[in-house]
Amino acid sequence: MTTTLKQRLQEDLTAAIKGRDELRSSTLRLTLSAVTTEEVAGKSARELSDDEVLKVIAREAKKRREAAEAFAQGGRADQAERERAEGEVLAEYLPKQLSDEELSAIVADAVREATAGGAEGPRAMGAVMKIANPRIAGRAEGGRVAAEVKRQLAGS
Length: 156
Prior knowledge:
Elements: H1 5-18, H2 22-40, H3 50-73, H4 77-91, H5 100-116, H6 121-136, H7 142-155
Helix pairs in contact: 1-2, 2-3, 2-4, 3-4, 5-6, 5-7, 6-7
């Protein structure tokens, strides 16, 4: 049987604790806690799929990025560095992020398809996002995708 992403997180947490890796163990502990919270949210408790666990990890990584920026702007470099380091631990579990060139190419294809389908003006944004998002699937943050779509639609 293949190991689920949640099992991998738990195994890595155990290894980090044994290896006395404080940063890694606290990051994985918080992430597993967020997964558990997600599992018991709603009407009935359930086991999350790997895709759902990935979404939780991506959300946690985004929180770390935002916190790092806030700490850096607040002049708390040590805290910002800690948040960045935690984000790097989480990045190991996420799909490799698209480069700007790869993202641009996917969005360009989506823009062509949407405009060929008759989408224009402000409505084109939604149509393009609908086409692009499944192809990007967690390999780029939503804000990055939206910014690229806006940029390309403005240029068309």
